[in-house]
Amino acid sequence: MKVLFIVGDEYEDIELLYPFYRVIEEGFTPVIAGKEKGSKITGKHGYSVVADISFKEVNPEDYLALVIPGGRGPERIRTLPEVKEITRKFFELKKPVAAICHGPQILISAGVIKGKKVTSVASIKDDVIAAGGEYVDSPVVEDENLISSRHPGDLPYFASTLIKVLKKK
């Protein structure tokens, strides 16, 4: 019952930590993936986490869901082939994918956003639309296996929706 978090440097600290701890509270095991196993990944506000696994080691079939926190992290890792492949595979398997704030940048780079209803931080709204997504300005948007939210203020809606979906698995 593992939940994968893909994380890049300068992630938005609370957008990782809030759902990370909620997942634990509900009895699931969060796993942090980074560029290298054991590497320290530092958030925008100075909190650090250690990668449990490298992106190259991830097998999406081993996880219930994928969580993509925002901040600058998605921008830093969105072009990595393994990050795009992980994301595509979660969509192929129809497993839940939860992206908040700048997280949809990874969805855009992975080519999985076309035709999906999605929300994000306002500054990437045009990117979402250009990639074929239908932008919805709402605290949380669910479309099939995709859960998305706009910013840290939406975290209660984001996390509760993620937990609701995980409990159905």
From TrEMBL:
Keywords: Glutamine amidotransferase. It comes from Stygiolobus caldivivus. Pfam families: DJ-1_PfpI. Residues 1-164 form the DJ-1/PfpI domain. This is Glutamine amidotransferase. It comes from the Archaea. Belongs to the peptidase C56 family. The keyword Hydrolase does not apply.
